[in-house]
Every structure is written in structure tokens, then in C-alpha cells.
## 1
Amino acid sequence: MNFFYCCGSGVHASVIAASAHLGILKGEEYSKRNVLSLPFFDLPPSQISGRPLFLGKDEEGNGVYTLPVMNKKKICFKIIRGFSDLFGIPREEMILIDCEKYVSPLINQLHIFRTLPGMKSLSRKLILILLKNAYFKLISQGRKARRADSGRPFAKA
């Protein structure tokens, strides 16, 4: 089975939830240092280019990915369903988890804003502030998805 944690950038909320799924984040108090040290956290848009990012395998051997969907979540989910059908991948082997519902939509704009000269530091600080408000919900989401029923295709655990 493969878990795809989806958020606008694919490198913020989804990385936190996926890291909780993998046990990298244990649910301790929010720490900027811990968040900044996560794999792929706050990669620039030019390094993501709309592709899934593989974070690792959980203890059961399931693949854990993040996926940038920007403001096209419904379309992205339909495309993934179509590819799974086209390539004969059973839908129950792919679970899509929506992490965007917990965070401010401003994160997506700030992620793009960071590409402007001299704005990386400011945008990162603002993104971290916005993520702090959703941190424990995202941790809970990752843990919940790890225990998800494999019989629910395209679950939004």
C-alpha cells in the first residue's frame, strides 16, 4: 500500500503528517528545529515540480509520499485515480490524505513568495507560524492514516 499526503506545496503540512506516520515526529511539543530538520521540508518550488516525494517506508513496508496539489486538489485526485486504473494499480493500495484542511491557504502563497529575492527567510518564518497552529492536528492525521483501513480506496483518513 502507498500513502500520499497531499497539501498545496507538498513540502509543508504533508511533510509533518507523513513524518508522524513514519514515526520521525513523535508528537512532542512543536519545535521549529524539529520541523526544519524534516526531509524535504520547505524545498523550493523549482525542486518539487509537481512530483510525489518519497519519504520512506513505514514499519509494515508501506510507501509514504508527499504530493503537491496547489489549489487543484480535486483534479489531482482524479488524475491519480485515472493513472491507477490505467496501470492496473488497485485503488485500495493508494490512500490519499488531505492535509490542507488543517492549514491556512496563505502557506501556498508564501511558498511561492519565497522565490523572490531576499524573501526566503521571511516567508519561512511566516510558514512556521502558520504551521504551529495546525501542528498537533497534522501529527494526529499521520498517526490516524497509519492505522487506516486498507479497504478504503482513496481514503481521506
## 2
Amino acid sequence: MSKSLFASLCMLALPVFAAASLWSAQSKDYGSGNADFTLREIERRPNSSVLQLDIRTRGSSVGSSMITACMLMRLAQERGGYRYLVKIDALPSNPKQMLVGFSHVANVKPQTLDAELSDSAMEVDLELFGSDLNKKCRANVN
């Protein structure tokens, strides 16, 4: 096989491998009772992720919020052991998507993580969820 043909085949396969590396989580993997939803990364950026929540069955708002927090904690861990999230719950371009930035330090200017994050983006310290929730989140993932 010629080098140019091999290079062309690699370029065709690259989008498939890139798409396969995007993150997703199912609520059922976190011990969800009634809720059935998926939080999936639809775009990975250097310091942020665009996420979409696909809801099949709604559960309680508190339970679903706890599961979503667990999912975000897991994503932050897998993306590089981040302690802080900076997020907006609805992108102006698509209200069904959220943007989450990742940081190791507090009070970072949101735009340094992603130009789409505004000053009003909410910072979340994942350590504030406490060790009990951290243990529960880790224990519930199969």
C-alpha cells in the first residue's frame, strides 16, 4: 500500500475515532430509580465540554440533580482530576445543551476556559459536595 493511500485512509478513519472518544453517562448506572436519562458530551474542547441531556423518563428533581452532579464529578475526574466546574446550563445557540469548563483553581475568569462562558457562569467546587456524596457517586457506578 502506498504511503499516500495509507494517509488518506487514516484521515477518513480519524473522525470515527474522535467521535468514539466522547464521554457519556447513563442515569441507570448511578442507581437511578425512576429517572432514565443520558448526559453526553457532544463536543470536547481543550478546557471545556459541550453536553446534552437526553431525557427518556423524568424522575424527581432532587434525585435527578444528584445524579447529574455525580455525572459531572465523574467527567471532571476523567478529564484531568479537576476540582472546579464553571458552567452555563443553556447555551444561547442551543438551549438543550450546557457548557462546562474545567479548572484546578478557584475564581478563574470563565472566558479563559472557553470564550462562550460568560462572567455570569456558575462556578462549582466539587469538594463542597462532601465526601459522602463523592463516595456515593463512586459506589453507584457499575
## 3
Amino acid sequence: MSMQRMFAVMTAIISFLGIYGSSSLQMIRGKNIGAGFMPMVFSVILLILSVIFFLKDKDQPRLKLRMLFDRYTIPGWIYYILNFLMTFLIYLIGMIPAMAVFGVTSQYILKRQSLLWATIFTVLWVAALYIVFVVLLQIPFERGLLFD
């Protein structure tokens, strides 16, 4: 089995675990979504992408293990560090400031955009998420230890 197909099988297993775990949680809570809704959505999307990746045309380039450690993919590891930083900042200062820090830094570092465009895009993105989740769906964002 190629590395590509092994990767697809592993992500499919992870998505099945996510579906199994989220199915035991409440999907709908009154008029709001429950704790299991978003993990279920992400797990189903991951499963669909895993199947597509598994069935991908064989003529396309295969994944190789050295691609993970190639010098051109080093900025990808920065993304993992930024994800860890965002998770810590959500706990510390809340969801909105953490998304702002993550958005600006990831846009600026990974896409190498100017700081102005990264800030504009991040403000629009965070505002859209706030409107959808907090205003329309009435799902409060985490406020963090410092602002609680």
C-alpha cells in the first residue's frame, strides 16, 4: 500500500473515532447546538476527505515521508506551533483575541502577506465568526481566565 493510501486509512480511522466519540454527546441543546455537533461535523468532513484522498488518481504525485521533513515544508511546523499558541491563548485571554493573534500571525508568517492585509483579513474573519456563532446561533465564545 502506498504512503498516500496509508495516510488516508489513518485519517479515516481518526474520523471514525471522532464520529463514535461525538455520537455519545448531545447534538442539539434547546435552540443551540450541543457539545457533539461540531466534532461530528469535523469528523464527517475528515472522513469524506479521507475517502477522496484514498481514491485519488494514481497519476498524481505520491506522498513521500521525506516531504514532511523537507526544508521547504518547515513553515508547516510553524503552523503547529501557532495552533498550540492559539489553544493556550483561548484558555488565557479568550476566543476572540486568540483568533486575532492566530489570524494575524499565520497570515503574516505563512502566507507572507503584509501586516496591514493580514490584520484586515483577520478582523473581517473574526467578525464573521462572531456574528454567526455569538449573534445568530447564540453560542458564547470562551472569555478566558483573564477576562472571566
## 4
Amino acid sequence: MTSLRNLGIATVAGLALATGSLVLGGGAVAANAATPAASTTTSSTTCTLAQLRTDWRASSALKTDLKALKAMPAGKDRRADAVKIRAKALDGGYGAGVEAKATWRQDNKGTKLRPLPANLKSDLKTLHSDSKADKPAEAKKIAAGALSGTYGATIESFAKAVQGSCTSGS
């Protein structure tokens, strides 16, 4: 498994929610990376680790679009393409995870997730060093803390976006 430090806050939050086997629900939406949504069942769904890993990674379509955008010369056409990419992310065209990130970023302009709060960093280090058997309980604790505001309002709002992305599409 990839080091938790390399997964980024979005994936770590998602992994904590998934590993904790929390029943996820709600809805949220935001810009910048991931693929198709996890499937939903009835009124609630338990996200799996595999679903969140897939949902929160940049889709190949988004990567291709961003690479093409970067290769374009600065100017009107490049700005127009950037607007199209952002709109596609917000509309779920790159998947529910990207949609959730894009919407969260749009709703929280100027808000930064990093640096992470010290208590969240500490808890993530504990999770990383825990035995395989202890990881689900620690992840559930982190997820519950993130959703309840233990790590601050910014992390809480982002955790709720992660939670909502698991059930926002299929």
C-alpha cells in the first residue's frame, strides 16, 4: 500500500472514512482530480477502501485534459479550456471524487487544507504506524473526529465532502 503521507489529505481523509467502515451518506461537491464515483445502494452505503482510492485519484481523462492545457500557449484559448475543465469537474464529468473536490474548493475559495492541524498529523502518524488489525479502529476514530470538527472547521467541511462523494454518483 502506498505510504499515507504520499496519498494527500483528500485520499487520507477518504481512506480513514473507508477503513473505518463508516456508513456514509450526504452529498457534497469540488476542483482538481479523481475518477468515477462509487456506487450507491439504498439510502446509505458503506464505502470500501478500493472505491475511495479509485474515486479520489485523478482520472485519466482529467490528467489528459490538464496535460493538454499545460502544453497550450498562454492566452484566450487556454483560459477558455481551463474554464471548460473546471466546469466538467464541477458537473461530475471526471467522477464523483473530483466533483466533490471541485465543489468544496469552489465553496471554500482561499481556504487551504495544509498545513494540517497538529492533532490530525499526530493521529495520522499513529494510524500509519498501527498494526493492520488496529488500523480500522484508529481510522474510524480519525474519521469521526474529522466529521465532528475535532480537527477544525476546515477539515470538518472537507471530511463531509469526502463522505458525500462516496454516495453522490455511480
